[in-house]
Amino acid sequence: MPKLVDHDQRREELVRAVWEVISRDGIEGATVRKVAEEAGVSVGGLRHYFDSQRGLLLFAAQAIARNVGARVLAHVRRDGLAGPERARLMLEEFLPLDAWRRVELDVWLACLVRSRVDPSMAELRETSWVGERHVCRLAVAYCRDARPPEDIRAPLGDARLERWAARLHVYVDGLTLQAGMFPEQLPAEEVRRGLRRELELVVAG
Amino acid sequence: MPKLVDHDQRREELVRAVWEVISRDGIEGATVRKVAEEAGVSVGGLRHYFDSQRGLLLFAAQAIARNVGARVLAHVRRDGLAGPERARLMLEEFLPLDAWRRVELDVWLACLVRSRVDPSMAELRETSWVGERHVCRLAVAYCRDARPPEDIRAPLGDARLERWAARLHVYVDGLTLQAGMFPEQLPAEEVRRGLRRELELVVAG
């Protein structure tokens, strides 16, 4: 299926170009024209992927959902990790701890804010909520040596653990927001320390 | 000082008009012209307060900082409240639990996102961080019957309590973000319950 491979590869190249433009010009300065220039393609050649600033944001947000999902899954599948360590690595994938994930957060927040007035972003918002809550449930299950939920929407069997998952979800979102918007107040080491302490609380119950 | 009174009253009327326009048209649709129409003044008459969309946002953000500060202070001064109850009332002032505070959050997030590329918003960002951290320190001190910090920038005397204040700050920001962006997942009652549980954790230490 050579066509399919080309298609995936082109998509990857475009994601990289979008990231490049957003890092340099901010979300508001990221236009279809600039992405086309960065990627070395015509504006018309982008039409299959997006053809407006809104479409560009949606394209970027979908790429983030895919990338975060894949990174989290890699930690789920790794051998030989202690439960709390696995939980920590999974949750760190949401935090803006490097330049790439910082762009992810900028795009993500912009989409969230816009989704309040743009119904076309509502589905993505719902998917991201469900996905992040699932990862938090997995993290709590790993920390407490409990049975992980089988379905992405299923709560944890134990109501107390389910409450911890909801708390962890709130905490991770707060940490993400603070790390992204107040980097001078919360350097990466402080962010990592906060998450570690939080998981110690989950382990202690 | 009749002039001063007029000035304050005009500012209040404008804040109300800005809120009205943002609730109706969203942040991106809020323009100087629309606010002038809503307030029944000329565009020129607004120039003293703001003369661009950026100035409008900054004006709105300053109003939020003033309003939240005044509401929190009212709880600090109320007689006869138990410590955790006072803490809860103070922190609820940050949460989008009604239509007015929901607009506050929309404006606030928009300013935060924009402050990443607009240095004129950096001071407000810094002030808001310091203010919210101070309120979290007060809340922890009230919950644990400890001595509140005397200065807005001073940490709590006990390093363990200071860590709780940092945690509470992260939690409140996460709860604010989730309540604002995912109201269908997190109705107001759930938000209040989350905050109450969090403060129980602080009390238990």
From TrEMBL, chains A, B:
Keyword terms of this UniProt record: DNA-binding, Repressor, Transcription, Transcription regulation
GO MF annotation list: DNA-binding transcription factor activity; transcription cis-regulatory region binding
Lineage start: Bacteria, Bacillati, Actinomycetota, Actinomycetes, Kitasatosporales
InterPro entries: BetI_C, DNA-bd_HTH_TetR-type_CS, Homeodomain-like_sf, HTH-type_TetR-like_transc_reg, HTH_TetR, Tet_transcr_reg_TetR-rel_C_sf
Pfam families associated with the record: TetR_C_6, TetR_N
Protein name: AcrR family transcriptional regulator
Domain (HTH tetR-type) ranges: 8-68
PROSITE patterns: HTH_TETR_1, HTH_TETR_2
DNA-binding interval(s): 31-50
